[in-house]
Write a structure and sequence with these properties.
The complex is a heterotrimer. Chain A contains 3 helices and no strands. Chain A is mostly helical. The C terminus of chain A is likely disordered. Chain B is mainly α. The longest helix of chain B has about 35 residues. The N terminus of chain B is likely disordered. By secondary structure, chain C is of the alpha+beta class. In chain C, about 35% of the residues lie in helices and about 15% in strands. Chain C has 9 helices and 9 strands. The chains are: A mainly alpha, B mainly alpha, C alpha+beta. Chains in contact: A-B, A-C, B-C. Chains B and C meet through helix 2, helix 4, helix 7 and helix 8 of B and helix 3, helix 4, strand 6, helix 8 and helix 9 of C.
Chain lengths: ~90, ~425, ~280
């Protein structure tokens, strides 16, 4: 007859709970260790595009601006109207 | 000269457009940088030999270029190219999640390069998968509907790869549209971005964990220290720090090689980006360690530590998971980018090691003839990777991947969003 | 009842049961399925390897020269040219010959793995390989706990080779070639239920003659091929650590979670996106 196996889950559960608790504590500690010190370095890149341009002017490589159209010598700004669509969530 | 002056009754406008487009593409194919570089000198012969080996593989069967056996049906191509390569491409779903879902602007400068890398990784590694299939032309079977093996996790993984490539391409397509100057297309594609990103992240969570779930069926063959019912979770978590480490690694290299394509704003922001990514890697490595510990205790694996496999397992966990976790933490605290880069490299090696262990090394670990990849398998893998880098280089030097989107378009996007 | 009459009855019973199980029950419940299988009584096997010869001849594969090739000297596995092999073992109970081939599991790992349904469990029980669908991914080989499917690495159009319980012969009303060829009644073909009964009766009647276990009764949820032996099965090359869980169970939870993830994660992400709106405006 095959041996009937009995799995004793209590053996490992105690140690597993200990692991979970130490993880939670360790996680708290870790997050505090990794947090930026005084917030100065954190938001050096501002979130608004206009402000970003004011601080760091975007200098694009010359032939990036629509290289295909540029080669056909079209004017980039002809006849394009900006969209005034409402923001929809 | 093209333009208004040549309009005649004999040539419709669309033919002119097509000819111009064709000439443009040909011009774009010409190299923009010096051709003789160390990278080219190494990669070209490898790719040539790789191409020849691929021909042999198709003419004479898998056994002619691989060391695969009946006991080891999956080898380096599956274990590294597919199972590890997809983890390395995990940066795409993480960074798009941060930028588009959580609107963390800090990472916007790298999102395009990361998506491009993700797209190319999936395309080339799925391509490499075609090399490994016995009858690659039959890959259409699970796609066209006459052979849907719903019960198979591989079916799920295969479909997700396909859908994810499409999602990545849509996410990247605004860049292509900017390059070609197709403004309306760009606007439309940009509006699709958020939904595509959400779809892509969902797909990623399933197929990254799915890669681990595939090995659940190999229960009797994988060494107990690497097999667990939590393989899907472990693979998902390791895909996070694998992706972050790869973004750090590739980003560092790109910033050196393509220095002239990056504007001042990016350079300034990049250090902060790396530190932010390192934080994420440290936290997920920490989590992963505890997962491994719980799985170890739960499975009562103490007895397995006594032999060489136990040492190999400890090496993988201590040197390649615990150590980079600590080095990342130290690198973040001291703001030392050198430490962070070193930790990233060790992390990548660790992920490769773990996945090779699960799929190849600790697979059929009792076998008397352990599988070792042939030099031809390694050369073909290298050729695939070099080809991917060539395409990456071609795209980055021509399309606005590393530059900021011009302010005009950013304002348009914000108004439309 | 003599052997031949019993075999014919068992074959007829098997075929009748197979035909019967195709009828769906009137109340819409899934039909109770009776699978067919083969009982291998290794105490009767004399190692003549007629089964190997018959299998090779029936399927156009290698026909071994059983007199001269000395194959019993080494422990062999099936190959892409031989769907079944007989091995000889020296055990506590003397010399034992064991025929090995695909076990035709009740819930096969290979069919759970196959993403094209090339590996297919027929309604009657035999697990077959359907060539038009296979793309050669070899996941079935990864999954099979008995390491049965064999792959033609040396062919540009590779096949998977394994025992099909002579499915093509069964469809024409014959019994498997190996069962027909066996001269000493080692192999018995019929419905698994009947075969289990017969096996239990044999153990009950001759308890000192057999190990008190039918290999395949519970392994990996039950297999179509059942084995009786005078020696412990570990000494006969049978894996002993497979457990009783059918292999498809291992992936069931993950597959069930897929629709849940597809519903929950996009919702969660959309919610996070909505919540992160405030960061932009702050």
């Amino acid at each position: 007859m095959e041996a009937i196996s009995y799995v004793n889950i209590f053996e490992t559960k105690g140690l597993e709970y200990l692991l979970v608790i130490s993880f939670l504590l360790g996680f708290l500690v870790l997050v505090r260790i990794l947090a930026p010190r005084d917030g100065a370095a954190c938001e050096s890149v501002t979130t608004k595009p206009q402000a970003a341009v004011a601080e760091h002017p975007v200098t694009c490589v010359a032939d990036f601006e629509c290289p295909y159209r540029a080669s056909v010598t079209h004017n980039l700004d002809d006849g394009v109207s900006t969209n005034q669509e409402d923001v929809v969530a | 000269m093209p333009g208004g002056g040549e309009l005649s009754t004999a040539r419709p406008v669309w033919i002119e457009e097509a000819r111009h487009f064709f000439r443009f593409i040909i011009a774009e194919l010409k190299p923009r940088r010096p051709f003789v570089t160390p990278f080219n000198l190494i990669s070209i012969p490898v790719m040539v030999v790789g191409a020849m080996l691929i021909v042999i593989r198709f003419a004479r069967g898998l056994g002619s270029v691989t060391n695969l056996t009946q006991e080891s049906p999956w080898g380096f191509w599956i274990g590294f190219d597919v199972v590890t390569g997809v983890a390395f491409a995990g940066g795409a779903y993480l960074v798009t999640f941060a930028v588009y879902v959580m609107r963390t602007e800090r990472y916007r400068p790298i999102v395009r390069a990361t998506v491009l890398n993700g797209l190319l990784a999936y395309v080339f590694y799925a391509g490499a998968l075609l090399l490994d299939l016995g009858r690659p032309w039959k890959i259409v079977n699970p796609i066209i509907g006459n052979s849907f093996g719903y019960n198979s996790i591989l079916f799920l993984v295969a479909w997700h790869f396909m859908l994810y490539m499409i999602a990545e391409f849509i996410e990247f397509s605004p860049v292509v549209a900017e390059w070609l100057g197709w403004r309306r297309a760009r606007r439309i594609l940009h509006k699709l971005t958020l939904a595509t990103v959400i779809f892509g992240v969902t797909l990623s969570t399933l197929h990254q964990s799915g890669l681990g779930a595939m090995f659940l069926l190999a229960k009797s063959k994988i060494h107990p220290l690497w097999y667990s019912e939590f393989l899907p979770v472990l693979f998902l978590v390791s895909s996070v720090f694998a992706g972050l480490a790869m973004v750090i690694f590739e980003g560092t290299i790109s910033h050196r090689v393509f220095r002239d394509r990056i504007d001042r704003a990016h350079h300034a922001a990049f250090d902060e980006i790396v530190i932010g990514l390192a934080r994420g890697a440290a936290v997920t490595l920490f989590l992963y360690l505890f997962f491994k510990a719980v799985v170890f205790v739960h499975g009562k694996h103490w007895v397995h530590l006594a032999d060489k496999w136990g040492w190999w397992y400890l090496l993988e966990v201590v040197v390649f998971v615990l150590a980079p976790c600590l080095i990342f933490i130290r690198g973040v605290r001291l703001r030392e980018l050198g430490l962070i880069r070193a930790a990233a490299v060790v992390t990548l090696a660790g992920v490769a090691l773990n996945r090779l262990n699960v799929s190849v090394i600790a697979f059929n670990w009792r076998s008397a003839n352990p599988y070792v990849p042939s030099w031809m398998e390694l050369v073909i893998t290298a050729a695939v990777i070099f080809a991917e880098i060539w395409v990456f280089r071609w795209v980055v030097t021509r399309m606005p991947v590393l530059q900021s989107t011009p302010l005009r378009l950013v304002e348009e996007d914000h108004r439309a969003a | 009842m003599d052997r031949r009459r019993f075999l014919r009855l068992a074959g007829a019973a098997g075929a009748a049961l197979a035909a019967g199980s195709r009828r769906a029950r009137a109340d819409g419940e899934p039909a109770e399925v009776e699978f067919i299988g083969v009982l291998v009584d290794t105490t009767r096997c004399i190692g003549c390897r007629s089964c190997e010869v018959a299998c090779g001849e029936a399927h156009g594969l290698d026909v071994p020269d059983v007199v001269n090739d000395g194959a019993l000297e080494t422990e062999r596995t099936t190959t892409t040219r031989q769907r079944t092999v007989v091995n000889r073992y020296s055990t506590d109970a003397g010399t034992v010959f064991v025929k090995r081939q695909c076990m035709h599991c009740w819930q096969p790992a290979c069919t759970a793995a196959c993403l094209t349904n090339a590996m297919y469990k027929t309604h009657e029980g035999p697990v077959i390989w359907r060539e038009p669908k296979c793309m050669g991914c070899r996941y079935c080989m990864v999954a099979c706990p008995f390491e049965v499917p064999r792959f033609e690495y040396d062919s540009p159009v590779p096949r998977i080779e394994k025992c099909t319980l002579c499915w093509d012969r069964l469809e024409r009303g014959h019994i498997p070639a190996c069962v027909k060829a066996c001269p000493v009644d080692t192999l018995m073909f019929g419905s698994k239920r009947d075969l289990l009964e017969i096996a239990r009766v044999r153990i009950y009647n001759h308890p000192e003659h057999y190990v008190h276990k039918i290999y395949g009764e519970h392994e990996v949820g039950g297999t179509g091929w059942l084995y009786l032996s005078a020696a412990p099965f570990e000494q006969l090359g049978f894996p002993s650590d497979l457990g009783t869980t059918p292999y498809p169970e291992f992936t069931r939870e993950f597959l069930y979670s897929v629709p849940v993830v597809f519903l929950a994660v996009p919702t969660l992400l959309a919610g996070l996106h909505r919540l992160s709106r405030d960061r932009e405006n702050s």
